[in-house]
Amino acid sequence: MQFVGKNPKDIYTQTVKDIKRTDFGVGVDRDSVKRSFTRGEHHRHRSSFSRALNAQGGAKVSFCDVPDQFTKIDDKVFLQVKEEDMHLFYRKKTMKLAVKAGLHTIICDGVHGFHPSELGRKAQLYGLHAVCGDAQAKPFAYAVTINKLTATYLKVFQNIASRLEKYGADINQLNVVLGYETAAHNAAEQFG
């Protein structure tokens, strides 16, 4: 938690500076983003930062030590699997709804650059998105891993498949779209 114990005003000021340096892509003007963030609303944003920081009570989070308050959303368990090399996050209700809505495709890809530095260079946030019926892909599970090994991807796939089967999905009928990670492809081949 990079903000625990920090001054909310300093965090707000740093956020404004970050907005000034961020490239939001074609057609998005940094100054307009900054104005939207700061115009007449800055006290509300600073208060939001302050409330959020104070609500954590100085809690420290690490990969090995995740306080209970960070394992749930709306009092429902979100951190479902916690192992030494991988954490798997999803809501059971979301899985059930995806199966009920006709889940037919899972799209998987990792983000390798935006993770806590304590996890090292090989860490990643791995997202799994569900496609049901004619709908767009919607996120339904996340894995934070400390490596990109075939064995780790295999654990992710096995856990997700097990849960989906429990809710009535026919795993053999699902399409799976993977990113470029060779280890993920190797794991998928081993899985089925």
TrEMBL record:
It comes from the Eukaryota. This is Uncharacterized protein. It comes from Diploscapter pachys. The lineage of its organism: Eukaryota, Metazoa, Ecdysozoa, Nematoda, Chromadorea.
